[in-house]
CCHC-type domain-containing protein (Sparus aurata), 205 residues
Amino acid sequence: MLTVGRHIVSGRVQTGRSHGFEKKKSAPSFRRITISPLADIDLKTVHVMIFSERVRNQDVWTWMARYCEVINAMEVMDIDGIKTGTRRFQVRLIRRQGALQHLPNTIQLGAFRGSVFYPGQPKECRKCGSLDHLAAACTMDVCRNCKALDHTTAHCPTPVKCNLCSSANHRFKDCPQAYSNRLKLSTLRSAVSLSQEVMIFFSDH
Ligand SMILES: [Zn+2]
Ligand SMILES: [Zn+2]
Ligand SMILES: [Zn+2]
């Protein structure tokens, strides 16, 4: 036993070379196992490619936040400083019962479609979502709206869902979470609070 300051450190000191050698021999081999901290596996740099300036990064952020924890976002520019349509996000994937929850391969906001990719992302069929084949080899006739197999997208009985928040009550352009609508709302709110201030100002006199 050893006393260091107010702490007591105790342990067994191994003596003798042969004892140490035997222990090493019987221990399991860890040579093939690479140990990475959990946080490093879950952290991903995600590229989202949507070639339309009309798609706001804030909306892509809201969409991403349905599937993972978004840490930051930036627009990728070319050497002339022109937007390339690629947006880069730092995210932390979510685990459910220990299993990593991956992001979809595609994104659609209103009429705009794009692709989503990062290292280690499972490749899925863009049509039916299967992990066994890609869209070019897909033989499924899947409704793009509700993923059912017994009807086409044009004959879908399910109302078109908002592709930002997945609500069936509105479309993307009317989504209260869409950046342009939030902006309108906050402008409206500040206009209302301004008019209240004016009213208070007048009632004081
Ligand atoms: Zn498929
Ligand atoms: Zn359908
Ligand atoms: Zn919505």
